[in-house]
Amino acid sequence: MTSRQQGRVPVLLLAVVATLALIFLAFRSSWFGVPLDDEELARALRSEGDAQSVQHGLEQLVARFTRGDSVAEAGRFAEALDALATHALLEVRRVAAWAMGHEKKGRHVPSLLRMLKDQDRGTRLNAALALSNHSRAEGLPELREALQAVHLLAPATGTLETRIKAGEALSLGRDYGTITSKDGLVTPVRTSLNGWVRTMHAHSGAEVASGTPLAELLPDAATLANALLGIELVGTVAEIELLEGLDALGDVSASAEMKARIARARAAAALRLVARR
Predict the structure, then answer these.
(1) Domains 37-138 and 150-218 share a fold
(2) CA 232/CA 269 separation, integer angstroms
(3) Helix crossing, 221-234 with 256-275: angle to 10°?
(4) What 3 state SS string does the chain have?
(5) Which member of 65, 151, 175, 235 lies 3.0 to 4.6 Å from 102 by CB, making a disulfide possible if both were Cys?
(6) Is CATH 1.25.10.10 the classification given to domain 37-138?
């Protein structure tokens, strides 16, 4: 190796080390499992403009609640968590509601009750599930709705454009398509649940009126299972008929494992509800 070649080695090595360092830092900042101390967690929960930092903080707060961390259980982060109930980003509100369900003393029940009126269906459902963890039944209407088919309604009048097909899986908030008015105004159509399309009432190119059904959507297996767990905790005899009709949903997107999970949860919920008669 020449002296000139030897001189290049440290430079190349430095470049490799720098690249690896950048990769590590990027990985660390996006990995929600990285532990945060008390001050870091407080800052993360108040990172208004950084949704990823807030979600990282919420994941870490749930981990603390789960292991019975004395600082978290004493309410050190309660005010910051309550403030997230009205965060501008629905993704943050959903995770905040989920986190509130893990706090054991019920400090966040008032916030969860307000979140039942959120415009975002995912936030409302997570709030209902969190309330059921606190043995509160105010979210039962949301839990019932999560077990039933819903119709996706046209948000405007005009020409529908969509690439979605019957039987296709959908995620909450996904773009279903657009509706273009005669004036050229384009309105996005977004789904309101995690699930799949059972029936399409209007296909791409069809003229639709505001408020008319575009498709019938069914909840996915995870949504069904979570709602069943909530109903098992706070349900009444009024839910038994609804539980008995779940087989009609026929969730084609569910794996055999998820179908078995739904069957177990449904059986447990039905037994508990019958015992309450």
Answers:
(1) no
(2) 4
(3) 20
(4) CCHHHHHHHHHHHHHHHHHHHHHHHHHHHHCCCCCCCHHHHHHHHCCCCCHHHHHHHHHHHHHHHHHCCHHHHCCCCHHHHHHHHHCCCHHHHHHHHHHHCCCCCCCCHHHHHHHCCCCCHHHHHHHHHHHHHCCCCCCHHHHHHHCCCEEEECCCCEEEECCCCCCCEECCCCEEEEEECCCCCEEEEECCCCEEEEEECCCCCCEECCCCEEEEEEECHHHHHHHHHHHHHHCCHHHHHHHHCHHHHCCCCCCHHHHHHHHHHHHHHHHHHHHCC
(5) 65
(6) yes
Q: For residue 263, which phi and psi values (nearest 5 degrees)?
A: -60, -45
Task: Give the Å distances, CA to CA, from 264 to 228, 232, 241, 261, 276.
Answer: 10, 11, 17, 5, 19
pLDDT in tens, 233-245: 888 878 877 887 7
Q: Model-level pTM greater than 0.85? A: no
Radius of gyration of the chain (CA): 24
Tokens 């990769």 -> residue: 23
CA separation for the pair 78, 147 (Å, rounded): 31
Q: pLDDT tens-digit profile of 162-197? A: 999 998 888 877 789 999 999 999 999 988 778 889
Ramachandran category for residue 167: left, alpha or beta (phi over 0 → left; psi -120 to 50 → alpha): left
Angle between helices 221-234 and 121-133 (to 10 degrees): 40
Architecture of domain 150-218: Beta Barrel (2.40)
User: How would you classify residue 68: left for phi > 0, otherwise alpha for psi between -120 and 50, otherwise beta?
Assistant: left
What is the amino acid identity at position 107?
A: R
Instruction: Say how far apart CA 208 and CA 185 lie, in whole Å.
Output: 14
Annotated domain spans of the chain: 37-138, 150-218, 221-275
